[in-house]
Design a protein that fits this description.
Elements lengths: L3 H10 L6 E5 L7 E2 L3 E2 L9 E2 L3 E4 L9 E7 L13 E5 L11 E4 L3 E4 L2 E4 L10 E2 L10 E3 L7 H9 L4 E5 L4 E6 L3 E2 L10 E2 L1 H12 L4 E6 L3 H7 L6 E5 L9 H9 L2 E5 L3 E2 L5 E5 L2 E6 L3 H20 L7 E6 L4 E5 L2 E9 L2 E3 L18 E5 L2 E5 L4 E6 L6
Parallel strand pairs: 6-7, 14-17, 14-18, 15-16, 18-22, 20-25
Antiparallel strand pairs: 1-13, 2-13, 3-12, 4-11, 5-7, 5-8, 6-10, 9-10, 19-21, 21-22, 23-29, 24-28, 25-26, 25-27, 27-29
Helix pairs in contact: 1-6, 3-6
């Protein structure tokens, strides 16, 4: 058995294998950059109008009348040379003629018969021109390796001419649930049976975090375990069957085959029986089977493993010290993770249901309180360690 901090350190020290690939930038949402990314071009690559209005040379007397010689739209390549007291009508995004240095917005202009006059308060006078490279300069570092690719990142990459990028590939994942009592289909339950809530949580949570997993349910037999652990994946996640019962096939398989074990059991509640091990060069994280214990160990340990496999640091849960806005009275024998809800700067607890078998109240929670062993008589205002399980901690 290891301490919580040791378990995290052992995960961080494990030599994970990961692969990179080059993909269409439009298909890169949720990946992380495998290398630094630079702009291929200036953005914008030409001087363009920031407003609908009239482009002219500011050296002309703005109190005079101006002749409108042309209308320039976005996408045009027109570049008329203007004479004194001439201007062009111009639309937002259109290229600015070379000898213009000012755009006066449409609202400050009076147009009659292709002749325009301006009513320009000094406080309103500005160029309204986007200069070359004003947004992004050619060869500028846009994003460092490890950046999580979001819609705004994709937009910036495309605008700078990066239509293909190198990303850290996502791992192939096998999700294994166990137990004769677990039912995965919509059939009536017999006495002693339960529906597979762990599969429901883990599969959809992985999807929410940007991963797809193949899933399988195995019964309580050593032969089933043998079949599963000889398949090839980048990561296997199992839930259940890791305690000390006669039919805990995952633990029995580990004991029988003596694979490389990184850590076996962590000194926490719930989820202490968790095992991180390696078989056939595949990392395997085996989570406790009770619903809340399964939840806690996935968020604390499996997410950290996924972060290393993809080099996506945002997957690692964040911990901070905050003030509790609720009461908690209990003596605990080892480090315990308690369901809680973070809203703004307020930390509250659900009803007094802190059983590891209870999952329903997690629908009201988005964080965990990390409590050291000992007697806790917490009241509003007490400082507690809060683990935010939201990916971007927003």
């Amino acid at each position: 058995m290891v301490k919580y901090e040791q378990a995290l350190q052992l995960i961080d020290e494990y030599k994970f294998k990961h692969q990179t690939k080059t993909i269409d930038t439009f298909e890169s949402l949720g990946y992380t950059l495998a290398s630094n990314c630079y702009s291929n071009i200036n953005v914008p690559g030409f001087r363009k109008s920031a407003m609908d209005g009239y482009a002219l040379n500011s050296s002309d007397d703005l109190n005079q009348t101006f002749k409108v010689v042309e209308t320039i739209y976005a996408g045009s390549n027109s570049n008329p040379k203007l004479n004194c007291f001439e201007c062009v009508k111009i639309m937002t995004g259109a290229p600015i003629p070379d000898n213009c240095d000012l755009v006066i917005v449409k609202e400050l202009a009076n147009l009659e018969n292709d002749v325009v006059t301006f009513n320009i308060p000094k406080t309103k006078l500005n160029s309204n021109i986007c200069q070359i490279g004003e947004d992004i300069k050619a060869d500028e570092l846009l994003f460092s390796a490890g950046t999580v690719i979001t819609p705004t990142v994709i937009s910036s990459l495309i605008s700078s001419g990066n239509f293909e990028i190198e990303v850290n590939d996502k791992p192939s994942i096998l999700l294994v649930t166990t137990g004769d009592e677990v039912v995965t289909t919509n059939t009536p339950l017999s006495c002693g049976q339960i529906y597979n809530s762990n599969l429901a949580y883990l599969k959809t949570r992985l999807l929410e975090l940007g991963f797809k997993a193949n899933t399988i349910h195995i019964d309580d037999s050593q032969q089933s375990a043998q079949t599963i652990f000889n398949t090839k994946y980048d990561l296997i996640i199992t839930t259940g069957a890791i305690s000390v019962g006669d039919r805990d096939i995952i633990r029995n398989y580990i004991m029988a085959t003596s694979p490389k074990v990184i850590f076996d059991r962590v000194n926490i509640m719930p989820g202490g029986p968790v095992v991180f091990w390696e078989h056939n060069q595949t990392p395997i994280i085996s989570l406790a089977g009770s619903p809340f214990a399964n939840f806690v160990t996935f968020e604390l340990f499996a997410r950290r493993i996924l972060a290393h496999l993809t080099k996506d640091k945002s997957l690692i849960v964040a911990e901070q010290v905050m003030s509790l806005d609720d009461y908690f009275h209990k003596t605990i024998k080892k480090r315990r993770f308690v369901k809680a809800n973070l809203k703004g700067n307020k930390i509250t607890l659900p009803a007094n249901n802190h059983l590891a078998s209870s999952m329903h109240e997690m629908t009201l929670c988005n964080c965990l309180i990390n409590l050291e062993r000992g007697e806790h008589n917490l009241i509003p205002g007490d400082q507690v360690k809060v683990i935010d399980i939201r990916r971007n901690h927003e």
